[in-house]
């Protein structure tokens, strides 16, 4: 047990309280016939919550935590004690981690693997004693300078091999800890300039790497889902996994569309020029929706600022698309969010997560009510009602010919008139729920 969080007690649902606690998140409240906790499947990001030191491009560490710099196994274990104490206070059912978050890197691949397994032993004991489950694990293939030109896409085959060994070890640990997913987060899989880049070769390397990960998953009997996290413009200018559509095209090219799904982050969706709900809806339409990272960006900054969610209407529209698609299966809501560098106290970390969970709870309930009452879906169905006719369906059937459709349109003297999309009325409708 860590002493870092002092006398902070486990949070409870207390809607009228002014202290730490939940005002909207009641874990066992039924929403569409299922407990709220099973809809939301909250997870804490180990890296931002316990690994990030509060630095920015112009200044170093601001957080004074007793396990920093976590460059020894003793400090890594102290960090694990604090993390699992925090999970207990928050009542979070899941957590997520990178290998680099939980153990210091060793002098060799073997030492790094052994250290990861030692920390996994610590995690396993804490999980068996009532700690949270593992939503997903992943490998840090971006921080070390060896990855400055990518991991799977690196021009040096030794880096490719090093990354393969790292992912193998992380996937083994994820399986051992009962992880429900494994994420490939391509932080450096992109390029700065075509002047020194063979784009086609790098894409083929990335496709081959992912195919081998999928093959290995099946060989070891890992039952979880392999996820890719779409990620634009960060840190390289051209990312190969830019958004959901780009990832789907990549998966189709390498025959992996039935093996791999996506973990969608709100901040990345915005950087790609999309809304969060657009990316979720598209992933559902393409059959590759898996999980989400719930955070937000600063509207005045063109960077992924990883702030905790606080916009209920935005969150409601995201969960509406998730619920409409059938909800999470192996995925969940991971808070890939970090405190502001001036938020120094342990209580700040608790309050940030509690507030974010409340925002998500409010969004979920609004989304469920919208879906249950069906007014949005009724308006959508009415807009496409003309396609229900036999003649309209025949135009989309296999064997339909462009010239036959064109001749029929001429024969009927078609002169279709536009019909209002009623966008403002539908926006007003949504605002009644949020």
TrEMBL record:
Could you say which residues bind Mg(2+) 1 here?
Answer: 229, 265, 293, 336
Q: Which GO MF terms are attached to this record? A: magnesium ion binding; xylose isomerase activity
Q: Write out the GO biological process terms.
A: D-xylose metabolic process
- Keyword check for Nuclease, yes or no: no
What EC identifiers does the entry list? 5.3.1.5
The cofactor(s) it depends on are: Mg(2+)
Subcellular location, in the record's words? Cytoplasm
Q: Which UniProt keywords apply?
A: Carbohydrate metabolism, Cytoplasm, Isomerase, Magnesium, Metal-binding, Xylose metabolism
| Enzyme superclass (EC) | isomerase
| Oligomeric form and interacting partners | Homotetramer.
Q: What is this protein's record name?
A: Xylose isomerase
Q: Which organism is it from?
A: Frigidibacter mobilis
């Amino acid at each position: 047990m860590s002493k870092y969080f002092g006398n902070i007690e486990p949070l409870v649902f207390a809607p009228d309280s002014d202290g730490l606690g939940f005002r909207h998140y009641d874990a066992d409240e039924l929403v569409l016939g299922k407990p709220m906790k099973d809809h939301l499947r909250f997870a804490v990001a180990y890296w931002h919550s316990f690994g990030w030191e509060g630095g920015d491009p112009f200044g170093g560490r601001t957080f004074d935590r007793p396990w920093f710099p976590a460059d020894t196994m003793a400090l890594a274990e102290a960090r694990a004690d604090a993390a699992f104490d925090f999970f207990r206070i928050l009542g979070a059912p899941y957590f997520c981690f990178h290998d680099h978050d939980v153990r210091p890197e060793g002098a060799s691949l073997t030492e790094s693997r052994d250290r990861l397994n030692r920390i996994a032993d610590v995690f396993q004991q804490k999980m068996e004693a009532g700690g949270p489950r593992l939503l997903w694990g992943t490998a840090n293939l971006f921080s070390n300078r060896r990855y400055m030109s990518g991991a799977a896409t690196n021009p040096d085959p030794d880096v490719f091999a090093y990354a393969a060994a790292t992912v193998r070890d992380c996937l083994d640990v994820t399986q051992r800890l009962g992880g429900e997913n494994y994420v490939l987060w391509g932080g450096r899989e992109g390029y700065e300039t075509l002047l020194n880049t063979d784009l086609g070769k790098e894409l083929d390397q990335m496709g081959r790497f992912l195919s081998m990960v999928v093959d290995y998953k099946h060989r070891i009997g890992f039952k979880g889902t392999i996820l890719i996290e779409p990620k634009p413009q960060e840190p390289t200018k051209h990312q190969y996994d830019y958004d959901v559509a780009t990832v789907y095209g990549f998966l189709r090219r390498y025959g992996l569309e039935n093996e791999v799904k996506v973990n969608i982050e709100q901040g990345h969706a915005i950087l790609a020029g999309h809304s969060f709900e657009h990316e979720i809806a598209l992933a559902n339409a393409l059959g590759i929706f898996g999980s989400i990272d719930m955070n937000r960006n600063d509207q005045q900054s063109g960077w992924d600022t990883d702030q905790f969610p606080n916009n209920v209407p935005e969150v409601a529209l995201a969960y509406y698309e998730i619920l409409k698609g059938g909800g999470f299966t192996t995925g969940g809501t991971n808070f890939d969010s970090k405190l502001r560098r001036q938020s120094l106290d342990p209580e700040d970390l608790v309050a940030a997560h509690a507030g974010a969970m409340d925002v998500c709870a409010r969004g979920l309930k609004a989304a469920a009510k919208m879906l249950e009452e069906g007014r949005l879906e009724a308006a959508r169905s009415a807009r496409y009602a003309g396609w229900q006719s036999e003649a309209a369906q025949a135009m989309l059937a296999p064997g339909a010919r462009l010239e036959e459709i064109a001749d029929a349109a001429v024969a009927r003297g078609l002169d279709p008139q536009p019909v209002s999309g009623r966008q403002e009325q539908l926006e007003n409708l949504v605002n009644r729920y949020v």
